[in-house]
């Protein structure tokens, strides 16, 4: 009997809030400029393969600005309390828990946010891998704060040049990798759970449980997830990109674009019933027959839907956009570009302002 194990990214699949982005708004409108420029920098150097740097290390790079403005862990908790849960997530987790799935959340988010969302979904802290954050730095030299303030001023000016890769990389490299270290500040003191560290977490859990990755499902949506998705695909498992962007879609083997994540349960049920082959059959049938399914959900065959979800769709009467499933293993480059555009539409609807971030 297979060990039913599923890994979720948090921001995107489970909660629309980008918590760190919202926290920077405590600085004021300029906080959004700081976050967006640093997020852009993160995208650039992640895909350049900067040694020792992982996608999502934005959450380490913004810490000096939290320190400058006196932002605390309590502030992060308060911002997290405003976070919504993605439609259908509570239903999905109730079903998975009732069916004895072992559920893990592997999140770039700060622990204050990850534990809050996990608690709402009934996931204990020992099943959540996330970023630990220290904002009580007594070791900082006093002259570091004028340096951070000057960098903040320059980054705000860079916002109007956010597409100028050279300008952004030159100024932020100088600040993060030369000026701060010269005063004894190491940005990597904050170990962010993103990129390869998410893949490492998946491997470590699988090893501890003595399971093969071909038996698992991983769910992500962004640049911090692509290595986790790729790891699961490489070992024959199911990697689902949910309302993903151009950084994540190419590395998954299943796409789900929807305002409601309960539809993921269809794939979970298929995996238990018939392994990866059954999942890909369901996805392909949805993709090929989506127009007919939307016209009359009652005609969806039982192997492509659960009874609960069919009832839900019949009751909805198409108030919400009909979901898309995509078989990404069969998608060429041009088709993937079309799929990315579909996902981006749903992404912006679900995540709103945070949807534009990498």
Describe the structure.
The chain is α/β, with parallel strands linked by helices and 358 residues long. It has a domain at 19-83 and 133-189: AF1437-like domain superfamily (AF1437-like domain fold). The protein has helices at residues 19-24, 29-47, 58-61, 63-69, 73-81, 89-98, 111-120, 144-158, 165-182, 196-209, 226-234, 264-295, 307-316, 333-351; strands spanning 5-8, 102-110, 128-131, 216-220, 238-242, 254-257, 324-327. It has a seven-stranded mixed beta sheet with strand order 3-2-1-4-5-6-7, sandwiched between helices. Helix 2 (29-47) crosses helix 8 (144-158). The longest helix is centred in the last third of the chain and has 32 residues, at 264-295.
The CATH architecture assignment of the domain at 19-83 and 133-189 turns out to be Orthogonal Bundle
The CATH class of the domain at 19-83 and 133-189, by name, is Mainly Alpha
What fold name goes in the CATH topology slot of the domain at 19-83 and 133-189?
AF1437-like domain fold
Reading the helices and strands in chain order gives EHHHHHHEHEHHHEHEEHHEH
Would you report the number of β strands? 7
Extract low-pLDDT stretches: none
The general outline is elongated
- Widest β-sheet, arrangement of strands: 3-2-1-4-5-6-7
First-last Cα distance: 38 Å
| Separate helix tally | 14
Structural class: alpha/beta
- State which percent range the strand residues make up: 5-15%
Radius of gyration: 21 Å
**Approximately how much helix is present in the residues?**
40-55%
């Amino acid at each position: 009997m297979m060990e039913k194990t599923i890994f979720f990214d948090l921001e995107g699949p489970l909660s629309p809030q980008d918590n760190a982005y919202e926290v920077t708004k405590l600085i004021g409108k300029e906080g959004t400029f700081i976050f967006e420029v640093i997020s852009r920098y993160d995208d650039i150097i992640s895909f350049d393969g900067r040694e020792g740097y992982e996608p999502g290390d934005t959450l380490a790079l913004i810490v000096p600005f939290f320190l400058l403005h006196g932002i605390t862990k309590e502030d992060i908790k308060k911002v997290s309390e405003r976070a919504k849960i993605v439609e259908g997530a509570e239903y999905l987790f109730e079903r998975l828990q009732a069916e004895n799935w072992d559920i893990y959340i592997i999140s770039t988010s700060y622990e204050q946010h990850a534990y809050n969302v996990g608690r709402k979904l009934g996931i204990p802290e020992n099943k959540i891998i996330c970023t630990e954050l220290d904002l009580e730095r007594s070791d900082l030299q006093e002259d570091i704060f004028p340096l951070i303030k000057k960098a903040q001023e320059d980054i705000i000016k860079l916002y109007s040049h956010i597409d100028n890769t050279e300008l952004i990389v030159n100024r932020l490299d100088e600040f993060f990798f030369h000026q701060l270290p010269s005063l004894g500040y190491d940005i990597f003191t904050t170990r962010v759970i993103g990129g390869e560290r998410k893949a490492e977490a998946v491997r470590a859990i699988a090893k501890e449980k003595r399971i093969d990755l071909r038996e698992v499902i991983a769910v992500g949506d962004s640049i911090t997830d692509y290595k986790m998705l790729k790891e699961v695909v490489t070992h024959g498992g199911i990697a689902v990109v949910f309302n993903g962007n151009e950084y994540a879609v190419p590395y998954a083997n299943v796409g789900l674009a929807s305002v409601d994540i309960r539809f993921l349960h269809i794939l979970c049920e298929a995996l238990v019933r018939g392994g990866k082959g059954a999942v890909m059959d369901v996805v392909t049938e949805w993709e090929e027959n989506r127009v007919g399914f939307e016209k009359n959900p009652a005609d969806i065959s039982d192997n492509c839907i659960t009874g609960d979800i069919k009832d839900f769709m019949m009751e909805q009467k198409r108030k919400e956009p009909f979901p898309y499933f995509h078989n990404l293993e069969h998608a060429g480059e041009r088709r993937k570009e079309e799929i990315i555009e579909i996902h981006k539409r749903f992404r912006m609807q679900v995540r709103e302002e945070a949807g534009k971030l990498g």
